[in-house]
Amino acid sequence: MKKYLSLIILITLVTLCAFSTAAAELPFSLSGDFKTKYIYDLENENNLDQTELNLEIEKDFSYTGGFYLNLGLESYSEYLMNNKNRETELSIKEGYFDYYTENIDWRAGKQIFNWGSSYNIKPSNYFNPIDIGAINPLENREGINALQAKYYLNNVQHFTAVVGLREDINDFQQALKFTKRRWHGFDFSLSLFRGNELEKYNQNEYPKVTKAGFDITGDIGQKNIGIFSEVVYNDFKSPIFNDGLETVVGFDYKFENNLYLLGQYYYQKRLFENIDDSQIISLHAEKPFWQFHSWEANLLYDLNSELIVLRPKIIYSLTEAMEIEAGAVLKANDDQRSQLARANEELIYLGINSYF
Amino acid sequence: MKKISTILLLGLFILTLSFAAAAQDLSGEEVLTNIENARQAETASMQMTMELYNAAGDMRSRQLNSRHKEGEVEKSLIEFTSPADVAGTAFLSLEDNSSSEEDMYLFLPVLGSVRKISGSQKNGNFVGSDLSYIDLTVFSGANYKDNYQADVLDSSSEEYLLKLNPTDPDINYKYGKMWVKTDIWSPKKVEFYDQSEELLKTVQLEDFKKIDNNWIAQKITVKNEQKGTKTVMKMTEIKFNINLDDQLFTTRYLER
């Protein structure tokens, strides 16, 4: 086990050294990050670790197109039947080609869409499942193989069409979105999606669904308080699921002392008869300190189960592009019926991040 | 001999009086107009290094490209090129002069998409530096009269000392003091005072160079006198009045 870790660290260091000397001569740009974390699982009282090397290879052909590849090499420990095992995975996180014409920007390959203006919980992010293995799954999404075309009517209005293939269920996902920007200080979009839910429900099934969505973001008042909202109507193919609304409303604000605050309320009509509607309040705060460092804290509160998830984090800059990250995931009123409980393991961690 | 020295003294006295009269001729408003008129570029493209120092003297460096275009809609694009943890991050600002409405967009490479950000983002410091977003207008030299009313505190043939009184409610300084070089009509030093009238920031502009008929300080040091932190901006490449395609200032460009 230690052998594997040493091997990965060695490969990483050699790769970094090689890249740093050769990068200037490469016909494409090369960047990436190396992150390693020690994790203590508070729920199962286990020691874990995660080491990750991401390589980003990019080439831009100016106004005609380009390509982008994000390769991830990950090594992590996990417990199976009380035995600690090590898994090592090499994956393409994203990899696509771009081709630009006068009015249409095409993108083909594995990609992450990030639709929706709300924070982490995004009803109109239709395509990319959350990465359940990540410390913060809501901030990490998995790529999907897709063809995307953006047709620009002008600089402030465009249509986006996407056809994607979910590998895990071998099923096509399709969406059409209209976006308008700079409309009286607001950006908004209307979208229509046909495909599958991102989460598994009955008997490991990803229910087939048609979604109609509306997303808006902008400022209000003299203080320029940011507001955002997403409203999505879910129409399930199977009668065992309840059709209904999924919505987010929220605000954000940055104070003169650089404190950034965000708050949002999420609602989803109950999917089945025997469960409650889902209601979650999210609060997020972040602030720099001592010029180069920062702290942030996320709080999620499930109004039905009264589960609270708190995620404090400190990022301490060691030197240029290298930092120590320390954080925790803490829960109160743990209730495994809550979706939040399943996506948030209680833990503390300490890690080093390096960017190149 | 006595006659000559009397004439010389008289001449010197008249000359001094005339200089003083000439200096006093301009009001604070007119000095601000002269500063604005001295910078008449429709477009500007700059590459700069921004050095951030904490109170202990430790330094972090950022390299960025800044592009600006005047017009009915005032457009600015700032892109970070290094270090690696911020490279690729870009801010786009589009301000409609007729309605004073401003839209700001942020592109983060990790998200791969453009996000509209609220106007309150301008309340804090500019990318971790000692500058506020409104301080940046001091260096562009274009918008003084939009933000400040000025009174002349002192003047000589070489410089004016102005008191800047904020007219923009978003500015949190009680007042500022600005030393203006009359040969090139550019500020050379600015002090900002907080609401308790304590000195908060000192801005020093140095290494002036005339580029495409515009005088510009190639080194700007902003010191937070209360925290002991400092930001040094060094211009490495400056171009004025070059052709900047409107397509650069779009969310479409950012997402590419």
Automatic annotation (TrEMBL), chain A:
SUPFAM superfamilies: Porins. Residues 1-24 form the signal peptide. Keywords: Signal. It comes from the Bacteria. This is Uncharacterized protein. It comes from Halanaerobium kushneri.
From TrEMBL, chain B:
Keywords: Lipoprotein, Signal. Residues 74-256 form the Uncharacterized protein TP-0789 domain. It comes from the Bacteria. The keyword Lipoprotein applies. Residues 1-23 form the signal peptide. Gene3D superfamilies: Lipoprotein localisation LolA/LolB/LppX. Pfam families: LolA_like (PF17131). InterPro entries: TP_0789-like (IPR033399). This is Outer membrane lipoprotein-sorting protein. The lineage of its organism: Bacteria, Bacillati, Bacillota, Clostridia, Halanaerobiales.
